[in-house]
Amino acid sequence: MLKPVTLRGHLVCLEPMTVEHVHDLCAAASEDRSTYGYTNVPVGLDETRRYIESALKAHLEGSVLPFVVRHNGTGKIVGTTRFLDLEVFNLPQGTSNGAIPTDDNPPSVAEIGSTWYAASAQRTGVNTECKLLMLAHAFESWQTIRVTLKTDARNERSRSGIQRLGATFEGVRRAHIPASDGGIRDTAYYSIIAKEWPEVRKNLLQKQQRS
């Protein structure tokens, strides 16, 4: 499996998620929850503990690399995000070989998701820097060829945020998975591929300077 890694920026630090983060992550999730209508965000200590344990189990299985987001200015945990759906391709054939990604055999493709922030961190520079750090790690350290981002098709706020990153809209997968509100959701898919990364990086750096 991929070893936990810390990604450091000017505004935030992405730390490997551990069970010790349960109280801080629960506190972050307990701020104003009005923006979480389409997002799976745990409620209370017990649910937050299960949320973390599930992420750590998936990491051991090789399918995710989860982080908590620490604000460098306040020192507080202000949210979480992760790499998921990690696949290694047989190149040049280009098919998934079922191998568990490792540092020596990194993922050919990845997704960034399961992202949520405390209300106090929303509409700040936190998300821009988180995406900049994660995309740089994917494309520059792993040499990943594609990063996927997806969200509930009804979540206009999330979709606008993904589009502002410079990701390309691929389409909507209908009746995809259970929704966080109890129904079945359509999922909007976006992606960034390796040749687009330099322009996306430039865009994110400009946004970072303005925030």
TrEMBL record:
The keyword Ligase does not apply. One of its GO terms (molecular function) is acyltransferase activity, transferring groups other than amino-acyl groups. Coiled coil: none annotated. It holds the Pfam family Acetyltransf_3. It comes from the Bacteria. Gene3D superfamilies: 3.40.630.30. SUPFAM superfamilies: Acyl-CoA N-acyltransferases (Nat). InterPro entries: Acyl_CoA_acyltransferase, GNAT_dom. The keyword Lipid metabolism does not apply. Signal peptide: none annotated. Keywords: Transferase. Residues 13-167 form the N-acetyltransferase domain. PANTHER family: BLL6696 PROTEIN, N-ACETYLTRANSFERASE DOMAIN-CONTAINING PROTEIN. This is GNAT family N-acetyltransferase. It comes from Peribacillus muralis.
